[in-house]
Structures are given as C-alpha cells and as structure tokens.
Specification:
- This protein has 304 residues and is of the alpha/beta class.
- It is 43% helix and 16% strand.
- An 8-stranded mixed sheet has the order 1-2-4-3-5-6-7-8, sandwiched between helices.
- Helix 2 links the parallel strand 3 and strand 4.
- The longest helix is centred in the middle third of the chain and has 22 residues.
- The radius of gyration is 18 Å and the shape is globular.
Length: 304
C-alpha cells in the first residue's frame, strides 16, 4: 500500500461543538473532494462504518462522527438533550465545519437515518445537504401516520401488518419503561448482543467499542425523547433533499411494509430493495459503497 493510499484511510480527528455537546469527528480522504457524511445508529459509534470508509475515501472526502451521547461524544443529562431537533442541529454543525463551501451527501443507518429525517425536512436543508441515502431508518412521524392508517382500516391484512411491525418494534416498549433498561442493559446487553447479531445477520458481530455498554444505555434517551411525541403528535413533513431509500427485506427492526408510503416523504425518491438484514454497513460494505457512489454521482457529485 502506498503512502498516499494509507493516509486516505487514517482519520484526521477533530471536535465540533454543537450546543451542549462536543462531537468527535473523523475525516478521511481528500478534503477538497465531494464530501460524504456517514451517521451511525444505536448502539453503534462511527466505527460501524469502518469497512465502508476506505472504499469511499479513494474518491471522496469521507466524514464520520460519534453522535451525541455515544462513543467519544459523551453527554450526560436528561432525555431532553436528545430530541430530533438537537440531533439535526448536530448534523448541520458537522456539515458546516467539514464542508463550509458546498453541501454534503448524507448517508445514515438506523437511528442515524431517523435523526436526519428531521433536518432534511427543514426548508433550508438543501443549503447544507446535496442528497440523503437512508439505510434501515424511517421518518418516524410518517411511520406513525402509516401505523394510524392501518389501525383506522382494520382489515385482516392491515391487522397482520400491524402485528408484524409491533413484534419487530417490541424492544421499544422495553426502552420506554422507566429505570428497567438502565438496570438490565449493563448486565445482559454485552452478552446477548453478539448472539443476537449472529442469529439475525449470519456473521459474527464486530468488536464492540470500548464505550459499548454506556452507549446502549445512553441511546435509550433517543427513544424516550422522541417516540411518544411522534406517535401521539406526528408532524408530517417532506424532505427537500433528494432521497435514496435502502429497504432490507430481512431487517429485524424495520419491516419493508413500513416504507410503503415513502414517495410521500420526499420530493425526489430513489428506492432500492435488497434481500439483506439490518446491519448492511457491516455485512455488505462494498454494496453500501457502490450504492452511495452511484447515487452521489447521479446527484451531481463529480469529483470521483
């Protein structure tokens, strides 16, 4: 491996301040190239993208960061510090810092996608974001409206769909229970997680971050700050940013039916349906890199 290639794969670590949190940011590749910003979900850190980053950094300026309360971006405090609005502000702060002169291309997984839906629906979103590739993460306001629609039309098919999604989302009820997740996750989470990953994805789980147990517990605040509000008072909005939606048929958390109304979520939709599981950045990094590269080039990213 030559020195230039090796440098592209070694992060340049910086810190971006956003409100109450100092976000750990990691940059790879040529900083003058088109920027791709990768955002992780729960209970991950930026490391969930480790196999994807070198594939993209050959041609792009690639940026990852630990979201608030996770990894090297710790944030003690109440659930009110983890609202979708604040998480969206974080994404803008990072985009401004790493690419002040042109919009970045967003790529996100799981809660990374969920949190970015809030910001790409803002009227000013296109000032900072050129495209959004969402993997296994819905707009939770739109998802709540979809669930309400099924409940209002209780046909056998709709009730079956509701039951499947309720089963897939059963872990959310646990997270919303006061004090129980904080008591149990540190004890059983590190032992159960590798087994769950192996059972659902068919491969061994990646080495967890040193902060894994803390991240599991901290992430509970994401659910408590946002889920009930979205279910009880959904605020339907459409993204002003072009969207590539990646839907995985074997996803244990997000059933494909949840994305049936995805065309209503954005002004510009490209949908990709795959026969894959939830952790696509880990199980199929080359596929993720290929999808992102193709989409970024189609949206005007011409530095590759």
């Amino acid at each position: 491996m030559d020195a230039t290639r090796q440098t592209q794969h070694e992060p340049r670590t910086t810190t971006v301040v956003s409100g109450d949190v100092r976000l750990a940011v990691f940059e790879y590749g040529d900083p003058t190239a088109e920027t791709i910003l990768l955002v992780h979900g729960w209970p991950d850190t930026h490391a969930v993208w480790d196999a994807v980053v070198p594939l993209l950094a050959e041609n792009f300026h690639v940026v990852t960061y630990d979201t608030r309360g996770h990894g090297a971006s710790p944030l003690p405090g109440p659930k009110e510090l983890f609202t979708l609005e604040l998480l969206g502000d974080d994404a803008i702060a990072v985009a401004r810092a790493v690419s002040p002169d042109r919009p970045v291309h967003l790529v996100a997984h799981d809660w990374g996608s969920i949190q970015l839906w809030q910001v790409v629906c803002r009227p000013s979103a296109t000032e900072w974001f050129a495209s959004f590739t969402s993997i296994s993460g819905p707009n939770i306001d739109q998802a709540a409206i979809w669930l309400r629609g099924l409940a209002k039309r209780p046909t056998p098919r709709n009730l079956a769909t509701l039951a499947r999604q309720a089963a897939s989302s059963s872990y959310i009820y646990f997270f919303l229970t006061p004090r129980l997740p904080e008591a149990l996750l540190p004890k059983v989470g590190p032992r159960l997680w590798p087994r769950l990953f192996k059972a659902t994805e068919g491969i061994d789980a990646p080495q967890p971050a040193a902060t894994f147990t803390d991240d599991m517990v901290a992430g509970v605040r994401l659910y408590r700050a946002n889920m009930l509000r979205s279910v009880l008072r959904p605020n339907p909005q459409r993204s002003t940013v072009p969207l590539q939606l990646v839907v995985n048929s074997k996803d244990i958390a997000m059933t494909p039916a949840m994305f049936a109304d995805a065309a209503d979520w954005t002004v510009d939709l490209t949908r990709v349906d795959l026969d894959r599981g939830h952790w696509l950045p880990v199980t199929d990094p080359q596929l993720v890199a290929d999808l992102v590269t193709s989409y970024v080039l189609s949206r005007g990213g011409n530095d590759a």
